[in-house]
Design goal:
alpha/beta, 6 strands
Length: about 260
């Protein structure tokens, strides 16, 4: 899996969108089940094809010179889905690690995992930690996997960490700031997403990166995730390149 861009690829990526490429793109990969249902297939087939769409997305992100890709792979609310579907998704995770991890490592991809870990089944936790440990020193694309993730729970964990620091006397409550909260989040050290893409026509964040998305651009498309391909990715990037990002200020042309 060739996902690490060389300098020529990075230059091409910048040129192809007027130099306004997002540094970090996050994906809410929605519509696997609906894709399958529309074809008279079991929902599990949608997830299987969705995994192939993910592989294409990672490869294309590398070619386009994107530094960070975050995927909403499994939310903390997804445990409420039917047990058979959850079991299948855990099996897909195992197969992804077993099949793709070595290729991602060879391609210099770094894997980071965000989300709650305390209550995870030991086998699943071991897989996630294996992926992180094997790739921790890689310097290419950073693939951030949001697993058992919920943004509100993440913020609550950060608040708990800061409260514990305050009780120990390591920090005074008056010293708690946006920066210290950001550093207590699961995503510490990872830049906020420039672009958040959601497929399948839904237009909401669904408890995903609520703190980090404060100045993200959003791109919603009607395609179900299994149909999201390189052309669809490029369309999202082209849309981003035409956005004016003012971060609360004014565009210089408006002055």
């Amino acid at each position: 899996m060739n996902v690490s861009p060389d300098r020529n690829q990075q230059a091409h990526a910048a040129d192809s969108s007027s130099g306004k490429m997002p540094r970090h793109v996050a994906f809410i990969m929605d519509g696997n089940g609906r894709w399958a249902t529309a074809r008279g297939l079991p929902r599990t087939e949608g997830h299987r094809h969705g995994l192939e769409a993910l592989r294409k997305t990672i490869r294309h992100a590398g070619k386009r010179g994107i530094e960070v890709v975050t995927i909403y792979s499994f939310s903390s609310e997804n445990w409420s889905r039917p047990e058979t579907e959850v079991s299948f998704l855990m099996g897909l995770l195992r197969r992804f690690v077993q099949r793709d991890l070595s290729e991602l490592h060879e391609a210099n991809v770094k894997i980071s995992v965000i989300g709650g870990r305390d209550d995870l089944e030991k086998g699943i936790l071991a897989l996630l930690e294996e992926a992180e440990q094997l790739t921790r020193n890689n310097t290419g694309l950073n693939l951030v996997v949001a697993f058992n993730y919920g943004a509100r729970a993440e913020i609550a964990r950060a608040a708990k960490r800061l409260a514990e620091d305050a009780v120990r006397g390591d920090i005074h409550p008056d010293e708690i700031s946006e920066e210290s909260i950001g550093n207590a989040l699961d995503t510490r050290g990872i830049p906020d997403p420039d672009l958040i893409v959601r497929t399948s026509g839904e237009m909401r964040l669904s408890n995903f990166l609520l703190w980090q998305a404060v100045y993200s651009e959003f791109y919603f498309c009607d395609q179900h995730w299994p149909d999201f391909d390189e052309a669809a990715f490029d369309e999202a990037l082209a849309c981003f390149s035409n956005r004016q990002r003012r971060y609360g200020g004014l565009d210089a042309t408006a002055l």
